[in-house]
Structure to design on (469 residues):
C-alpha cells in the first residue's frame, strides 16, 4: 500500500493515486448539476467520500470478536474490495493477499462514537475555533454541523489511533434544537464532504434541561416547562410546513404556488417524516420520560438520548420504545441534573433490553472508548449483572451503528459489511491494550509500528519534531 498518510497535504497531492477510482464521481457530479424533483429531498452537500485503495488482506491467529455474538479464538478474517469477505476459524484467501499475524492479539469491528464535537470544537481550543453552538436562538434547526467541521482538527488522527473509524459530529447543546449532525468516516481529507459517510441519515440535535435554560434565561425559555413548550411549538409549525409541502407535491408542483423554504422548518419536517434521526441531550429520567410523550404527540421517537445520567431509572421505557441511550461510563455529579448517577448506568440499561452505548463527548475520551466500556462492564458485573465481553463490545460498535442508522453497513464483522477493523495489541478491555492497526473500508490507515501510517494534519506541520513526521 502506498504510504500517503503522513500528512493531509500529501494525501491531497497524491489522492488520485492513493484512492480507489471514483467510479461514482460522474453520478455525483450529475446530481449536483441537475435540479432535484422536490426541493425538500435534495441534499445540496452530498458526500464525496471515496475509500482509500486497499489490498486483499487476511488477519490470522487473533481472537476475532464479531460484535454479533461470535468470538473465535485463533480466528481468521478476510478483507477484500473494502468489505468483510470471510470470517471464521479458517478462511480461503487469494494468493496475493497481505497476511497479518495477529497471534495473541484481538480483532474487532471499528469503534463508532455517537457523540463527538471533533472538527466543530477542534484543537487548539480557542474562541476562533468555537463553532459548535449557534447560541443565537432556542431553535437553530436550520444549521448543519458539517459547515463548521474543520478537517484538519488533530483530534481526528488521535481518534483513529484509538480505533475510531466512524463518528457522529453534533452541534452543541445550547439550544432546544441545535441543528443537524453529520456522520463522518475517520479518514484524512481536505473537506468535510470527503469524510461524510455516504447515505448515512442526518441527525437532529436537541437539548433538555439546564443548558437551554441557562443560555436563554434572559429572554426565554428560562424554565423546563418553557423548554417543553418550545419543542411543541416548533413541531406544530413544522407539521404545518410539512403539510403545505406535501400538498404542493401532491397537486403537481406548480412553481407559482411553491411554498417558501424555511431551513429550520425543513429540518424539523424531515424529522417528522422519519428521515432525520433525533439525538436528544437529556440527563434526568423525568425529562426523558416527558420527551417521550412530546415525541409521541407528534408521531416520532428519538433515536438516542445522550448523556442520560439517570437513564437507568427509565430503562424499561427506553426498551419499550426502542430508544437507545448514549452514555458515559462514570461522568456524573458535575451539575444538578447530573447528580444522581451510578457506575452501573450502561449495564442497567443493557439489562433492561434497551440498546446501551458508550459515547465520548470529549476529544480525549474518544481515544479510549474501549476502556470506557471496560469500566462500565466491571461496574455491571460488580452489581451482579451477567454480562459478556461481546455485550460490552456492542456498546461502541453494533449498538452505536444502529443509533446512527448505519448498522446495515458497519458495527459488526459480518459478510458484506464495510471492512472497518481494529487489531488490538491485547484484550480490548485491558488498560494496557492499544489499537495497533486500524482499517477503514479495508484500507490500512493506521499502524502503530509504522510512522508512515500515522496520519498528521497540515496544522501540525512545523509543530511536531522532524522525526515524528
Amino acid at each position: 500500500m502506498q504510504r500517503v498518510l503522513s500528512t493531509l497535504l500529501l494525501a491531497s497531492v497524491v489522492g488520485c493515486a492513493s484512492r480507489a477510482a471514483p467510479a461514482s464521481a460522474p453520478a455525483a457530479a450529475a446530481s449536483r448539476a441537475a435540479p432535484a424533483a422536490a426541493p425538500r429531498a435534495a441534499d445540496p452537500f452530498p458526500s464525496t467520500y471515496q475509500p482509500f485503495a486497499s489490498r486483499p488482506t487476511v488477519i490470522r491467529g487473533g481472537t476475532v470478536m464479531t460484535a454479533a455474538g461470535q468470538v473465535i479464538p485463533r480466528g481468521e478474517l478476510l478483507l477484500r474490495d473494502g468489505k468483510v469477505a470471510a470470517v471464521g476459524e479458517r478462511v480461503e484467501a487469494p494468493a496475493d493477499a497481505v497476511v497479518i499475524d495477529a497471534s495473541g492479539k484481538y480483532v474487532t469491528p471499528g469503534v463508532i462514537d455517537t457523540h463527538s464535537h471533533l472538527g466543530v470544537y477542534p484543537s487548539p481550543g480557542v474562541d476562533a475555533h468555537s463553532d459548535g453552538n449557534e447560541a443565537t436562538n432556542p431553535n437553530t434547526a436550520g444549521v448543519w454541523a458539517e459547515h463548521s467541521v474543520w478537517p484538519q482538527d488533530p483530534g481526528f488522527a488521535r481518534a483513529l489511533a484509538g480505533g475510531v473509524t466512524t463518528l457522529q459530529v453534533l452541534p452543541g447543546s445550547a439550544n432546544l434544537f441545535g441543528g443537524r449532525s453529520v456522520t463522518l468516516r475517520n479518514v484524512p481529507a481536505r473537506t468535510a464532504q470527503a469524510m461524510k459517510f455516504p447515505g448515512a441519515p442526518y441527525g437532529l440535535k436537541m437539548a433538555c434541561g439546564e443548558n437551554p435554560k441557562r443560555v436563554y434565561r434572559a429572554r426565554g425559555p428560562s424554565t423546563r416547562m418553557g423548554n417543553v413548550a418550545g419543542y411543541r411549538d416548533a413541531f406544530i409549525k413544522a407539521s404545518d410546513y410539512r403539510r403545505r409541502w406535501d400538498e404542493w407535491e401532491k397537486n403537481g408542483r406548480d412553481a407559482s404556488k411553491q411554498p417558501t423554504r424555511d431551513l429550520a422548518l425543513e429540518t424539523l419536517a424531515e424529522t417528522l417524516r422519519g428521515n432525520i434521526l433525533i439525538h436528544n441531550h437529556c440527563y434526568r429520567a423525568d425529562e426523558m420520560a416527558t420527551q417521550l410523550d412530546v415525541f409521541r404527540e407528534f408521531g416520532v421517537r428519538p433515536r438516542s438520548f445522550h448523556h442520560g445520567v439517570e437513564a437507568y431509572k427509565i430503562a424499561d421505557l427506553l426498551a419499550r420504545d426502542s430508544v437507545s441511550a448514549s452514555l458515559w461510563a462514570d461522568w456524573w455529579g458535575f451539575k444538578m441534573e447530573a447528580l444522581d448517577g451510578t457506575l452501573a448506568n450502561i449495564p442497567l440499561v443493557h439489562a433492561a433490553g434497551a440498546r446501551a452505548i458508550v459515547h465520548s463527548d470529549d476529544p480525549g475520551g474518544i481515544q479510549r472508548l474501549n476502556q470506557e466500556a471496560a469500566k462500565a462492564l466491571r461496574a455491571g458485573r460488580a452489581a451482579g449483572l451477567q454480562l459478556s465481553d461481546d455485550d460490552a463490545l456492542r456498546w461502541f460498535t453494533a449498538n452505536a451503528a444502529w443509533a446512527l442508522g448505519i448498522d446495515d453497513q458497519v458495527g459488526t464483522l459480518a459478510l458484506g459489511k464495510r471492512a472497518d477493523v481494529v487489531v488490538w495489541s491485547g484484550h480490548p478491555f485491558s488498560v494496557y491494550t492499544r489499537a495497533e492497526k486500524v482499517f477503514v473500508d479495508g484500507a490500512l490507515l493506521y499502524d502503530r509500528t509504522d510512522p508512515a501510517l500515522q496520519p498528521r494534519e497540515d496544522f501540525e506541520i512545523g509543530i511536531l519534531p522532524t522525526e515524528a513526521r
